[in-house]
Design brief:
The protein has 232 residues and is an alpha/beta fold. The protein is 29% helix and 29% strand. The protein has helices spanning 43-50, 96-103, 114-120, 122-126, 137-149, 167-182, 194-200, 223-226, and strands at 3-14, 17-28, 32-36, 55-63, 66-67, 81-84, 155-159, 186-191, 203-208, 211-217.
């Protein structure tokens, strides 16, 4: 299997504070992986570590088979890693269409374009000339995902994608992500929402206090076993 993202014995944090402790994880081409855990256990720091926002103090991080030492949040898409950040980060002075076009700035070749995003998310077509920040929370999440896909990534990373969304929108999001994966894009979903990840992911890691507390195939994870680490 081709490794798209790998952490080996990684210690990382901010300033002198260590958030991740001897972390090991791996996502290969074609995989759908979830990272679960309560708030404050270091889930977002995993993203920040490979984007160069958090400081790596020990260990090795690899992206697309290469050391991630020089990768930053504005260059990850060039090597095939797109991130949908927590909070979505929609550009306020751009329309829906312009936000999507911005996602294609790295000019990676692939099947994703504005028309394909509109096909997956028809509401974005209807509101193409609306400012992105004028959309509802669910529509903004669709826009953030569509913008990330415009870079034609090998790996799509989503940080708390269900945050603030109604259950019916989470159901729709799960179906959208399954479609993305069926098209060949690998997924890394960082979440607390068991309902979402159980329908999308095939493998999981549970994070506790900056360390992997449990991992395995998704079909072996139950709500009962998760109660030790997150509220379900």
């Amino acid at each position: 299997m081709t490794e798209l993202l790998g952490f080996r014995d990684v210690v990382a944090g901010y300033g002198g504070a260590r958030i991740l402790h001897n972390l090991d994880l791996r996502i290969d081409a074609g995989e759908r992986v979830a990272i679960l855990g309560r708030n404050g256990v270091g889930k977002t720091t995993i993203v920040n570590a490979f984007l160069g926002i958090a400081k790596r103090m020990q260990g090795e991080i690899r992206l697309a088979g290469k050391p991630a030492n020089d990768i930053r949040h504005f260059t990850a898409a060039r090597v095939g890693i797109s991130v949908v950040p927590q909070g979505r980060c929609i550009i306020p002075n751009l329309t829906v269409r312009e936000n999507l076009i911005l996602g294609a700035a790295v000019r990676r070749k692939g099947a994703w374009n504005v028309e394909r995003v509109f096909t997956m998310f028809p509401i974005l077509r209807e509101r193409a000339d609306t400012p992105g920040t004028a959309l509802s929370g669910g529509q903004q999440q669709m826009l953030a995902i569509g913008r990330a896909l415009m870079a034609n990534p090998q790996l799509l990373v989503l940080d708390e994608p269900s945050e603030g969304l109604a259950p019916v929108i989470v159901d729709e999001l799960a179906e959208n992500l399954r479609q993305v994966a069926a098209g060949g894009t690998s997924l890394l979903i960082i979440e607390q929402n068991y309902s979402l990840v159980r329908r999308v992911a095939e493998r999981y890691y549970v994070l506790s206090k900056g360390e992997v507390a449990e991992q395995g195939a998704m079909d072996g994870l139950t709500k009962e076993s998760l109660k030790k680490h997150i509220a379900v």
